[in-house]
Structure to design on (537 residues):
């Protein structure tokens, strides 16, 4: 039974119930979706699922979650990150050999994802310059001989291959399995925070081509461009030295041709009738050297299967915010009839996590932000006065608007740029004062437990940016997809301040669009979440 492989001596009632329910489900279904909210212990359940199969891959969207798995389950797992997490072994790049030796020792002791922050990175190593794998290996071996230390990254890879349970981030896993060919299929595959999987795949497989001597400012102009010129440029890799493809030239040609083939609609007689740009979001950037095209696939279902899902005999996909089995399956290449869905309700007392719509919500559409900004600040100040002895979190819709809010509310505000987020966040965590963290990027992956935040203010409905061409085209294809993705972000926000059954915190909603949005998405909202809403339904 699954619970026999639970990693801790004591198991919670919810975990016992879920693992017992999963036993017959995994016997009948290859894919299982587990919707398990914050504090339900889904990582422990994931480890039990992994150990039950004998060997596994555990995949996460973020490196910080990899570290959490290693910290909590180092007896059972090893973790493998990308090259940028490891130091370069090349002695000519060292300022001090000691950190490299220390990190290599950590790798040998089992911590194969050390928190390496400074110095020469393996991702910038000169061994990557040769165009063939043999050339890169020869250069690396030369550096290892000179240094007297094996390459920490290569040691980490070798350790991971030999280990039963490996924790990877999704980007690294796609590279290690599909491009480097380093891992064989395993009995178990676990994907934590799987709501991020589709966007990560889409960005990972995106391809960029720069067409020389061509000026084209708008995507719609491509259909009017002479087809023979497209064939000339897109069919001849010699004209495309700037494509974002693999370093191996043969692999480059293979990936290039695969992209080109997918761009054409071929008639029965073999002639090309049109370019299939409708299947892609195409980002265009005009440069001095020509026009750069970045192709992002809209339908990534086949890629999800080949790049990730096919690497496990049984697959467990976990998140606190799946909400719609059918829409998740639609986007991620799963057959709903062959996929089980299990929902876990929150055990946090509903009175500890109220969600309150402001008494006089503000029209905060982008076009009305400046006009109504003063009203928003008045309401924020009223909430700050109500919580004058507490720390809190304010979710802003952008960096610019976060800075506006921070300046307007004054002394208690702590904000950050894109460069100093981690330092600012850790400083806020350590503080014993009554600061308020103002940020546009705290929707998920951050922990405002206990006194770190007793309240949060969600300024606007976190609608996705329709200026992003993927978002615009997916919304056009399926409007429900857009509302569901927004609901996922909103629900992730709600999970920031209340992290355990004894924790408590209140969420304030400022935007007058919240009632309409929540009414449109009520079919997907679990009752344990809607029970926390106060003053509106």
């Amino acid at each position: 039974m699954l619970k026999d492989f639970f990693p801790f001596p004591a198991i919670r009632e919810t975990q016992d119930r879920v693992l017992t329910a999963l036993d017959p489900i995994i016997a009948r279904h290859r894919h299982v979706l587990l919707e398990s909210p914050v504090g339900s212990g889904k990582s422990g359940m994931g480890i039990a699922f992994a150990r039950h199969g004998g060997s596994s891959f555990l995949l996460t969207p973020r490196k910080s979650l990899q570290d959490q798995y290693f910290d909590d389950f180092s007896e059972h797992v090893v973790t493998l990150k990308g090259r940028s997490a490891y130091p370069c072994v090349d002695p000519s790049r060292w300022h001090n050999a000691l950190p490299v030796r220390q990190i290599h020792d950590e790798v040998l002791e089992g911590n194969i994802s050390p928190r390496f922050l400074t110095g020469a990175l393996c991702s910038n190593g000169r061994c990557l310059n040769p165009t063939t794998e043999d050339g890169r290996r020869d250069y690396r071996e030369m550096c290892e001989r000179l240094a007297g230390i094996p390459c920490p990254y290569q040691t980490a890879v070798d350790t991971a291959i030999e280990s039963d349970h490996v924790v990877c981030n999704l980007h690294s896993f796609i590279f290690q399995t599909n491009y480097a060919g380093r891992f064989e299929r395993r009995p178990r595959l676990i994907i934590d925070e799987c709501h991020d999987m589709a966007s990560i795949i889409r960005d990972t497989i995106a391809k960029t081509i720069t067409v020389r001597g061509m000026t084209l400012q708008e995507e719609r102009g491509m259909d009017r461009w002479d087809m023979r010129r497209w064939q000339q440029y897109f069919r001849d890799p010699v004209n495309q030295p700037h494509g974002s493809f693999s370093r191996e030239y043969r692999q480059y040609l293979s990936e290039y041709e695969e992209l080109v083939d997918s761009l054409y609609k071929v008639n029965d007689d073999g002639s090309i009738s049109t370019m299939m740009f409708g299947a892609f979001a195409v980002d265009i950037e005009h440069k001095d050297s020509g026009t750069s095209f970045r192709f992002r696939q809209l339908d990534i279902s086949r890629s999800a299967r080949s790049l990730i899902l096919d690497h496990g005999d049984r697959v467990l996909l976990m998140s606190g915010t799946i909400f719609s089995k059918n829409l998740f399956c639609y986007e991620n290449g799963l057959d709903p009839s062959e996929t089980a869905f299990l929902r876990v309700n929150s055990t946090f007392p509903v009175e500890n996590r109220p969600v309150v719509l402001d008494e006089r919500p503000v029209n905060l559409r982008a076009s009305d932000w400046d006009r109504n900004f003063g009203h928003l600040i008045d309401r924020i100040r009223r909430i700050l006065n109500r919580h004058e002895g507490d720390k809190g979190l304010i979710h802003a819709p952008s960096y610019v608007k976060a800075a506006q809010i921070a300046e307007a509310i004054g002394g208690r505000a702590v904000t950050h740029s894109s460069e100093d987020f981690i330092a600012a966040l850790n400083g806020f965590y350590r503080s014993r004062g009554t600061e308020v963290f103002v940020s546009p990027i705290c929707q998920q992956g951050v922990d405002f437990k206990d006194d770190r935040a007793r309240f949060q203010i969600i300024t606007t409905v976190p609608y996705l940016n329709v200026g992003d061409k993927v978002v615009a085209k997916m919304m056009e294809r399926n409007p429900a997809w857009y509302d569901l993705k927004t609901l996922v972000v909103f629900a992730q926000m709600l999970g920031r301040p209340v992290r355990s059954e004894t924790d408590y915190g209140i969420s304030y909603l400022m935007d007058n669009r919240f009632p309409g949005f929540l009414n449109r998405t009520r079919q997907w909202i679990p009752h344990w979440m809607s029970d926390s809403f106060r003053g509106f339904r």
Observations:
- Confidence is low (pLDDT under 50) at residues 223-227, 240-249.
- The CA atoms of residues 449 and 499 lie 5 Å apart.
- The radius of gyration is 25 Å.
